[in-house]
Amino acid sequence: MSSVELKNPALTSSSGGSVVVSVDAMGGDRGPTAVISGIAESAAENPDIRYIVHGPQAELERLIAQHSGLSARCTIRDAAGVVTMSDKPSQVVRNGDGTSMWSTIDSVRTHEASVAVSCGNTGALMALSMIRLRKLPGVNRPAIACLWPSRNPQGFNIMLDVGADIRADAPDLLQYALMGSAYCRNGLGVERPRIGLMNVGTEEHKGKAELKLAGELISKAAADANFEYIGFVEGGDLASSKVDVIVMDGFTGNIALKAGEGTAKLVGEFLKDAFSNSILSKFAALLAMTSLKRLQRRIDPRRVNGGVFLGLNGTVVKSHGSADSTGVAAAIRLAVQLVQSGFQDRLAARVAQSATSIEDGPEQSATAQQADQPVSENKA
Amino acid sequence: MSSVELKNPALTSSSGGSVVVSVDAMGGDRGPTAVISGIAESAAENPDIRYIVHGPQAELERLIAQHSGLSARCTIRDAAGVVTMSDKPSQVVRNGDGTSMWSTIDSVRTHEASVAVSCGNTGALMALSMIRLRKLPGVNRPAIACLWPSRNPQGFNIMLDVGADIRADAPDLLQYALMGSAYCRNGLGVERPRIGLMNVGTEEHKGKAELKLAGELISKAAADANFEYIGFVEGGDLASSKVDVIVMDGFTGNIALKAGEGTAKLVGEFLKDAFSNSILSKFAALLAMTSLKRLQRRIDPRRVNGGVFLGLNGTVVKSHGSADSTGVAAAIRLAVQLVQSGFQDRLAARVAQSATSIEDGPEQSATAQQADQPVSENKA
């Protein structure tokens, strides 16, 4: 297992047994070939993982047989139906039984698998996850959290929500702060995460009224939940070292994430143009190959592939629809790391105790504060 | 005048006389020194511009005297007050008389100058512009439009609103489409601009209800206003060659713009790191210097410095607060190009005729369609 991406030592220690990952082989832009190749990469780098793979039996058997030794680690669940990128979430919830996506989620629901991974339609995956896994007690709107390359020591900032729900009112944004803080502590090893609230300016009078209210709620919750609230941040702070977790509604988060990704891609293309411009620049590119490859790795979205659905009874990792085998392997790696950190149980405890704390008053705060510490306490 | 940035040949032809630009010397992060140096750069590249410069008389006289021949082309308007970045727009509107920003806008109001340029507080500048210049007949919410490097032949896409108003309902978004289309036609020389509406997905069922309504309104207006409506676009399409003008509310636009700018900056830093990593990579950087400089120019925000306020009785160009002399000169160049293209009068005609067209029915459409064609018709 690579320890480059996620630095928390707790994450690299095995939980003792093997982890079972439920993988949707269908629905990605590159089809099941890329997904099965990603499983093979994952299997090669970590012998402790077993896979339940969902899709058309015959096709999956054929693809898995192409990778030596892989079939022994995979259980195939036959599912003929495929959720496409254009399917409406509401239709998938009504008619999706029999699809590979439904089957993938159900393996987590029945506790056969500890975590689910899919490259499919995000909206459908979230809708199915909500219906089949149900929301954690105390959570109103689940969120999708993703990692963004940053100037921080841990190498990443967490952004949420990046598209689970286009709406979020002030109490929802507070929950995003609690969930993002737990993810940052357990996933990135940041003891006391700094939370920022996305707005169009850092001054207190800027932005929407509901953001002012959310800021007040988050600020009040900071001491109990053991995070620091740093106030408003701006779009330019995605990679900032002054913040660890950036909270926003899913409409804003989706557009900010894609604007950032699109710009990184644009600059990468401009860079390629610049280096193919003359004989001299081509020669320079050859000389600088190692450095350029290092740069490419730093801005490669496949390296941080995987949005995590937060706020459900079970962990679901959404891989990019266009993920290749490396991207799929990265998403599985993230899924396994979250399982091994005991993140899901800690998050559930955090949200439940925070809800209790709000109902029962501040005397509950000592218990709540210990809920998701990254130490070897009992899980739930 | 450089013709690299804006390719419409109409823009590089002189209007016959000199253009008077009203420049706020105060309120930028780098103070009046950078602004006066920017004016000097602008004066050196274009002999047809005169400047009314606003700020403390003695200081401005001293700074202008440092540039040979500049004082003959500048009129100083003494203004002791300065609007700071932290001043609230509402306060500036009440108490801002006597500030350099107020005085700068008033030179356009009294028609002494054709266009205003300021590096100051965006919110205050928009509030003052609205109060002193007033909105164009038919416009509900003015917008700030900016240029974004793109893969299009014209080299840029237009984004609006990037921060004039955090709200926009469907009819406002329609007006942004009309204004952005006029700016694109007259400013970038695109005969029939393609308009996209920013959303979290391109499918018709995605996103907020008000965006669906806005899409219908924009689609209906497309034929009369001579643009093409291409439907929803996403954050990743800022630089896309499938669209020329991207329409969104000012909250979304501000965050998308800053997320893109911040990412370009991050990748630039990573690139610098990559090339200072080893002796070999440093040598490669030396060899590739010309290509790297070309890349830097392509992603340099100073090159496209200047958000344009659309929907007012007068043109105001907002330069970046952190603009240096090159950035200020670029903002003045954009301001002069807009004046020389007759953009303001064409925009006014477009919005007024569009409003008439909506009131009077489709028989007005032939007139409306001719309102902002980039030909040498009479202005207004």
Structural account:
The structure is a homodimer of 380-residue chains. The first copy, chain A, has two domains: 9-134 and 312-341, Isopropylmalate Dehydrogenase; 143-301, Isopropylmalate Dehydrogenase (3-Layer(aba) Sandwich). Chain A has helices spanning 9-12, 31-45, 57-65, 89-95, 100-109, 122-133, 170-188, 209-225, 250-275, 279-287, 289-299, 325-340, 343-360, 365-369; strands spanning 19-24, 49-55, 74-78, 115-118, 143-149, 156-160, 194-198, 228-233, 245-247, 307-310, 315-318. The first copy, chain A, has an eleven-stranded mixed beta sheet, sandwiched between helices. Chain A is of the alpha/beta class. At the A-B interface, α9, α10 and α11 of A face α9, α10 and α11 of B.
What characteristics describe this protein?
homodimer; 380 residues; alpha/beta; Isopropylmalate Dehydrogenase; 2 domains; 11-stranded mixed β-sheet; 14 helices; globular; disordered N terminus; disordered C terminus; Phospholipid_synth_PlsX-like (chains A, B); Phosphate acyltransferase (chains A, B); FA_synthesis (chains A, B)
Short synopsis of the structure:
Chains A, B: It is an enzyme of class 2 (transferase). 2 copies of one chain form a homodimer. Chain A has helices at about 10, 30-45, 55-65, 90-95, 100-110, 120-135, 170-190, 210-225, 250-275, 280-285, 290-300, 325-340, 345-360, 365-370, and strands spanning about 20-25, 50-55, 75-80, 115-120, 145-150, 155-160, 195-200, 230-235, 245, 305-310, 315-320.
